[in-house]
Specification:
GO terms for molecular function: ATP binding; ATP hydrolysis activity. The chain has seven helices and ten strands. The chain has 260 residues and is of the alpha/beta class. It has two domains: 168 residues, P-loop containing nucleotide triphosphate hydrolases (Rossmann fold, 3-Layer(aba) Sandwich), CATH 3.40.50; 65 residues, no CATH class. The two termini are 31 Å apart. The structure holds adenosine-5'-triphosphate.
Length: 260
């Protein structure tokens, strides 16, 4: 479904991604780990279309991916964006309203009713029905992330991009969110790319785990070389040996402990 062909991304002299190539099938769940600053978010932005590649290409179904965000791709960030004066339900509906009324984002009558019904459907699927008339500041952290997921899913994307969506949540809430994401992924046949700092999360959730790291390093000029995929593993929930190997490799690169 997606092919990355000799992808490079640099910002002036800072080479962030270097000669990255991979193929991803429909329905895969890719989890991405790597040290801070290695280019994980940049990679998601390239997929989303808010950044463009410096060299190489990204193909979706064999054609170059549109270099601007479209409804086929939805993203959820750790910090999410909402309109504080709109209710949960109105915030979810807004994405579809902008599609239908792109200039003012306002839709009226039966078209609006249909969109609100769609919003209710997605709110139910993320477990937010009881909170649909609340305002965003009245939600807990976990509920805010559920809202962000509903906002992404109402456009019915094929690709769901998750940039550390649960990084700020308590462990118990995180577990609930894992179950939610796995169930949405299965139900809606999504192809998921998820950045996480938590290697165990990457192992637990993904069907395939990618580690981003530099293959070559110039200590005098750390920005001279970029990251690429250094591990590409099919993962299961019990692969402790690989987990330990990657943990060591990441800790060596970062010279900091890696969360597990
Ligand atoms: N818009 C930009 N302009 C210039 N440099 C940028 C821009 N966006 C990212 N960078 C640089 O690209 C590099 C990779 O950043 P990125 O945010 O992709 O890393 P990351 O792996 O997601 O980090 P973290 O795990 O800390 O979130 C960093 O050196 C960063 O400073």
């Amino acid at each position: 479904m997606i092919e990355f062909r000799n992808l490079w991304k640099n910002y002036d002299d800072n080479v962030v991604l270097e000669n990255l190539s991979a193929q991803v099938g429909s329905g895969e769940f890719i989890t991405l780990v790597g040290t801070s600053g290695c280019g994980k978010s940049t990679f998601l932005k390239l997929l989303l279309g808010t950044e463009v590649t410096s060299r190489g290409s990204i193909l979706l179904d064999g054609r170059p991916i549109a270099d601007e965000p479209g409804p086929d791709r939805g993203i959820v960030f750790q910090k999410y964006s909402v309109f504080p004066h709109l209710t949960v339900r109105e915030n979810v509906a807004l994405g579809r309203e902008f599609e239908c009324g792109p200039i003012f984002g306002r839709v009226f009558g039966s078209a609006r009713k249909a969109i609100l019904a769609e919003a209710d459907h997605w709110l139910e699927s993320v477990g937010l029905t009881p909170a649909r008339h609340r305002y965003p500041h009245e939600l807990s952290g976990g509920m805010q992330q559920r809202l962000a997921i509903a906002q992404a899913l109402i456009k019915q994307p094929r690709l769901l991009l998750l940039d550390e969506p649960f990084g700020a949540l308590d462990p118990g809430i995180r577990k609930d969110m894992h179950q939610l994401v796995l169930s949405l992924w299965g139900q809606h046949k999504l192809t998921v790319f998820m950045v996480t700092h938590d290697l165990s999360e990457g192992f637990y959730l993904g069907t395939r785990l990618w580690v981003f790291d530099k293959c070559r390093m110039d200590p005098q000029a750390p920005e001279r070389f970029g990251s690429t995929i250094t591990f590409d593993l099919p993962v299961g929930k019990t692969d402790r040996q690989s987990l330990d190997k990657i943990k060591e490799s990441l800790a060596r690169s970062a010279q900091i402990p890696v969360a597990v």
